[in-house]
Amino acid sequence: MTDLDRRSFLRVGTLGLAGAMGGGLRAQTSPSVILPPYVADINGNGLLGSDDTQLMRGALFTSRGFALEPNRGFDFRADVFGRAGIDQDAVDAVSRTIGLLDDGVLVNAPRPITVAWHYGWYDRLRRPLLLQTARYLGGNYLSRNPQVEEGFNRLKNEFGITVDALSWIPTRASSSVLSNYRSGYFAAANAATRYVALLYESILALPQTGGRADFRSSRVQFQVLSDFGAMAKTLVEARDQYPTRVFLLDGRPVVFIFASHSWGLNPADTTEFEQMAAVVDEARETFRAVYGEYPYLVGEELLQMASTLTPSPDRVSRAINFDAIYAYHGANLKSSAPPFAMTELYGALQRFRLTRATQAVHGLKSRFTGNRLLIIPSLAGGFAKHGLPILSANRQAYADFVKLLTRFYSETYLPNEWPGAVGTPALPAPLYSVGSWNEEFEGHAVFPAQFNLALTASTQGGFDFVMALKQVFGWNHYAERAIRSS
After folding, report:
1. Can you give the pLDDT at residue 202?
2. Low-confidence ranges of the chain (pLDDT < 50)
3. Whole-angstrom Cα distance, residue 368 to residue 257?
4. What is the DSSP string of 90-118?
5. Helix spans in 293-437 (H)
6. Helix H or strand E encompassing 155
7. What is the Cα–Cα distance from 196 to 328, expressed in whole angstroms?
8. What is the pLDDT of residues 280-310, one digit of tens each?
9. Are 358 and 375 spatial neighbours (Cβ–Cβ below 8 Å)?
């Protein structure tokens, strides 16, 4: 399978530190800034105290550099502003935050959980230019290489990515992806630091009719059941055969679904949507028979539900097959649209979509569990892909975008829609998808990049997007300790 085949949108109906640490980044920090407690928890033990301030003082005036491996002596935990260096502002910010909250206080608001899509289909070192829109800083790579995955894991833990949603494609559609994971991802020396979910590539896995999956088709039904059993087997391997940990919500392994909005050929055919529900019900049972628990299903329905305050019956019928909904990205894929930038207006549009989706799904419950549908926001800015409108963003614009959406989610959505849920098995911490870690065809990869069509005016050597994530979320504490209540 080629990278171009990987996401054919026709099928879904859519065609040296000093310079980088210069005045621009330093000026963005107020001298009286207060950090989120989970960012000020420098050593990641869940407590704020003298150990954290001592670690900061020991790291003062060290710098990371912008190679894949940090400079010797640099402690990435202390880089609370994502500048690739530790200055007095950073030390003071940590001391000030701890001083306000008292020494030894428990970090009650847990560090957010961040999920990035992780792809395993890179089978060749040289990839054609038009199929590569974001190039890894270390050059091209092979997914079956455990040393590459080990390096990826170090970077993801440094820059705050908690969970890898492995792009899952059945062997009938790709003969190499699952074997690549076994040879590369699961064989990495530091695989024990990672949590695993799956991203079911239903648009690639299931037969399509006009870009949609017809659930009246016996072939579609059979393949859904087969895939759910095989996905459960992959997660059993992740749990029992490898050092990785399976990511759980409500005590169940998490499976994101790509392009679930393309499920159902005819929206007016209620019989098909009843058949879809029956197939998903049987698929859940198939999964449980293999794994021992039902899957926690996250459907890609957020943008569809956000299009109106009164979603159509077919959308509601499909959405309540899932436990949660998300959006893969936020950009418009109309090829006729002009290039666009990540501005305040663009961020406001994505926040508006979250607001509309919140209203649209309010009161909706999973048909299988009776629990309300959870919204998982996407912090992926959008596409920068040849032949489609190019999204342009820089470090500061992306950081502002991430802060805008996380503020809405943590201060408005969760307190109003899920009061008391954070810190429980249903929602161990606020949960966000940050888009792709290593997808090089669609242009929104966040890994350190030599070039990225979405990244304009890099000031941090290709680390701009991951540095912004680090600034907001801190390093990945969960690499060294369990996710609370999971």
Report:
1. 97
2. 1-29
3. 17
4. HHHHHHHHHHHH-TTEE--SPPPEEEEEE
5. 302-305, 313-319, 344-361, 395-408, 414-417
6. helix 146-158
7. 18
8. 999 999 999 999 999 999 999 999 999 988 9
9. yes
Give the chain's length.
Answer: 486
Antiparallel, parallel or unpaired: β 324-326 and 340-341: unpaired
Outline which parts of the chain fall under CATH 3.20.20.80. 3-15+109-479
| Token pair 């088709």: residue | 217
In the prediction, which pLDDT does 330 show? 66
Task: Identify whether the C-beta of residue 3 lies closer than 8 Å to the C-beta of residue 118.
Answer: no
CB 402 within 8 A of CB 469: yes
Give the per-residue SS3 of 14-72. Answer: CCCHHHHCCHHHHHCCCCCCCCCHHHHCCCCCCEECHHHHHHHHHHCCCECCCCCCCCC
- Tokens read off for 221: 């039904």
Count the alpha carbons within 13 Å of 229 in the hemisphere toward its beta carbon: 10
Half-sphere exposure (CA, 13 Å, Cβ side) for 78?
A: 27
If residue 258 lies in a helix (H) or strand (E), which one and from where to where? strand 252-258
Q: Cβ(179)–Cβ(146) under 8 Å?
A: no
Q: What CATH number should be reported for the domain whose range is 3-15+109-479?
A: 3.20.20.80
Write the secondary structure of 223-247 as one string of H (helix), E (strand) and C (coil).
HHHHHHHHHHHHHHHHHHCCCCEEC
Show the tokens assigned to 394. Answer: 């820089």
| The two structure tokens encoding residue 104 | 């030894």
298-309 burial code (b ≥16 CB/10 A, e <16): bbbbbbbbbeee
Return the structure tokens found at 209: 């009719």
Q: What pLDDT is attached to residue 337?
A: 78
CA dist 139 and 447 (Å) reads 12
Burial of 243 (0-12, 13-18, 19+ CB in 10 A): middle
Q: What is the pLDDT of residues 81-96, one digit of tens each?
A: 999 999 999 999 999 9
Residue owning tokens 């912008």: 66
Burial of residue 126 (number of CB atoms within 10 Å: 0-12, 13-18, 19+): exposed
At 63, the amino acid letter reads: S
* Contact (Cβ atoms closer than 8 angstroms) between residue 238 and residue 196: yes
The pair of structure tokens assigned to 307 is 């299009």
Contacts for 345 with CB less than 8 Å, ≥ 6 apart: none
